[in-house]
Amino acid sequence: MMIERYISSYLPSSTAPLKQGVYFDTAAQLALCAETNPWHDQEYQALAFLSKRVEISRGLYDSYLENGARASSERLSSPWATLALVLLFKDFMRLSVGADNSNAVKRLNAVLKLADFLSSEKVVLEAEFLEFIHITAEAYLRGLAPAEAMATESLVTPMPGLADPVLPITVLFWEGPIARAYLATLKSMGLRAGKIIHLVSKKNLATKKPVGRFLPGFMRLVYAQSHQKNSIHHWSGVLQKTETSLFQRIKGSVERDLGFSPSTIDDALALADLNVYSSDVEALMIDDLADEGLYRRLSELPSTRILFTGGGILPKRLLEIQSLKFIHIHPGYLPDVRGADCALWSHLMKGRTSATCFYMAPGIDDGDIIFAAYLPSLNVGTEGAGTPVKSLYRATYAFLDPWIRASVLRKAVALTQGFTCVEAFPQEESASVTYHFMHEKIQQVAFSRLFAGNYQ
After folding, report:
1. Whole-prediction pTM value?
2. What domains sit in the chain, N to C, each tagged with a CATH number?
3. End-to-end alpha carbon distance in the chain
4. What is the Cα 40 distance to its own chain's centre?
């Protein structure tokens, strides 16, 4: 078999010394997999562990702890990393002929990322082998059929009359399309947030350097707010001008298929003052979500629910504040579609986009579910061609992903009478699948289906 020949060809001739005191000795595990045929559970588990490491960080390290963190800062040497590519590809081929598409495509995601990494490190691979990978990958992706999911019943639910239009929630506002879509959605329902805490970064989001540090306190706050808003909404503004047709088609689909009015979408894009959405707005400058000042401020709040709008991974310490319950809307049907890039993964793997409103808990998209839904089919249209994949990716997260989330927020608010009557239920862990950021080759297929005929 061709793949076995490549394993023999790329297996290093010298054995790496065994590492002591580590959970996962990468070279030793790779040697075991290369020398074992057929594979059994031990080899499958080792490759699944490595695949996840590659999906998260592209390259590989020479050893890992049990939780997946690297045990040292030493990169795996090129000969062993090359062998890892061959073995992961072999495992992908095994998975691709079965019915386990979710694991097969994840393994392929790791293969493509590791191949890119080796190329960036100037590692020369046989042209025949690389061609074998890409031809096999393209054939698999072309034939990848989604596990069709049924759309949830109408997500547009009349809002029951509330005695108080002020929702008993605090919005932890991180400037961006998601937070703007949430606030515009609540406003369209005749609701206002009880409180908004506006998180303002002390650092430039790209360079991580301090912003306006020599300005007096209030002037620094105003400058940092403006800087953050301009930075985060940069691509939204550019795409509205350079990809006007694409923007209008996405906007039209959000209106028709998800039931948002043009005025609600325009409201979100207007980037209005936050006082429009709440009579109690407080700005708080932070380094990041682990900032001690943020922890202290949230600890001082009376018992309430916090609507999380982004800004990074929420530290476990915040989730453990007993008086608070954090609500998040994830763009995937939990627990079936966890992780990153889930607007794309959901459509690719399930045939339609989805989202879940849930209470946050430590872990990736863990926590009890308030409401989950597969969304109606999106009809973005097929006019035009040649839009770069990067533009489609940016447009998805500027104009589509926020409204996928907001549609489920709107339904959850209506079903729970403004989060005053919540019945949440635990996730079924046996159905859990966690995806990671999608390689561009897989993105191309995802976009060819989501934006039919409009990618390159």
Report:
1. 0.93
2. 2-143 (no CATH), 166-450 (3.40.50.170)
3. 34
4. 32
